[in-house]
TrEMBL record:
Belongs to the short-chain dehydrogenases/reductases (SDR) family. This is Uncharacterized protein. It holds the Pfam family adh_short. It comes from Strongylocentrotus purpuratus (Purple sea urchin). Transmembrane segments: none annotated.
């Protein structure tokens, strides 16, 4: 997996950051560390009860770490964490739009959007919007979220960032332009890989369209991390995978170690003037030829916009064209 550089000292005072799926695992550690560095962090997830419990746990751990420097893993810049829950169900395009409107109504800036939430080996049933679950939750709803929050990101820059938590599994994706949701392939591992590859491809497409806008776009592989991703309710993980996760648990990264790559992409000032970078082990790395293929990127971009046409206004498209 390689060693990871620790996060350099950063002060995120006056920064506002949204982290999707921040109530557990990598998202939890990402949100907590960013809040400890001074940011106002929005925990965007489905369950208010789980989010509230997570926020309380963050604050408890923060108090313990503040009292004992030996426990600190990032430079703590605040006495109390500024963390807030907002409801977001990425399995519903309407919920995604409701989140957008609720966020805009608060009048908050948005300096970093961390698209962290995701599913792995999810259900076979389509979402209420009629899409394959991995395609919608991991990729399409995040695409919609980004599109509608672009004006806020632009006005909060320069240096605003969009960070998508992808996976090294993107390398196992296939390409079928007539079945981008992978509906004809019942292998949910392949569906997961495709959704993660789409996140990387989308990074390139978006970065190209946002050149000169002050919004930088990154994606990343957090490492093989021991989280609940493969064991959450409603996810049917093959027995062989469960065995691997159990037997190989000592080799897996902790959620914080996994979050380090997200933290570098979200806050490391070394990348203030960079965009379209894919991180692994907290450092920029190259990606494979399929993810870099511009023709495929454009096919995916156009297909995604077609899927979202009922939720995209002319103003949104003008925002993309105005950069």
């Amino acid at each position: 997996m390689g060693s990871q550089p620790s996060l350099p000292e950063v002060n995120l005072a006056d920064k506002t950051i949204v982290v999707t799926g921040a109530n557990t695992g990598i998202g939890y550690e990402t949100a907590k560390a960013l809040a400890q560095a001074g940011a106002k962090v929005i925990v965007a997830c489905r369950s208010e009860s789980k989010a509230t419990e997570a926020i309380e746990q963050m604050k408890k751990e923060h108090a313990e770490e503040k009292a004992d420097p030996k426990k600190q893993r990032v430079q703590i810049k605040v006495d109390d964490l500024n963390v807030e829950f907002m409801a977001l169900d990425l399995g519903s395009l309407q919920s995604t739009m409701t989140f957008v409107e609720a966020y805009k109504s608060k009048g908050l800036p948005l300096h970093v959007l961390v698209c962290n939430a995701g599913i792995m080996w999810g259900p076979e049933e389509l979402t209420s919007d009629g899409y394959e679950p991995h395609f919608q939750i991991n990729y399409l709803s995040h695409f919609l979220l980004i599109l509608h929050l672009l004006p806020v990101l632009k006005s909060s820059g320069p240096g605003a960032r969009v960070v998508s938590v992808s996976s090294l599994m993107y390398r196992f994706a296939g390409w079928n332009a007539s079945d981008l949701q992978c509906l004809t392939n019942k292998d949910r591992g392949k569906r997961y890989s495709n959704s993660k590859c789409y996140q990387v491809m989308h990074m390139f497409s978006l970065a190209q369209r946002l050149e000169g806008s002050g919004v930088n776009v990154f994606s990343l592989h957090p490492g093989v991390v021991k989280t609940e991703l493969a064991t959450r309710e409603g996810q049917q993980v093959p027995g062989s995978t469960k065995f691997f996760l159990s037997a190989g648990s000592k080799m897996l990264r902790t959620p914080f170690d996994g979050a380090l790559t997200s933290l570098h992409a979200a806050a490391n000032p070394a990348y203030d003037e960079k965009t379209a970078l894919y991180f692994d082990s907290s450092k920029p790395q190259s990606v494979n030829s399929m993810a870099r293929n511009k023709d495929k990127q454009e096919i995916l971009w156009k297909y995604s916009l077609e899927c979202l046409k009922d939720h995209i206004t002319e103003d949104v498209m003008k925002e993309l064209a105005s950069t």
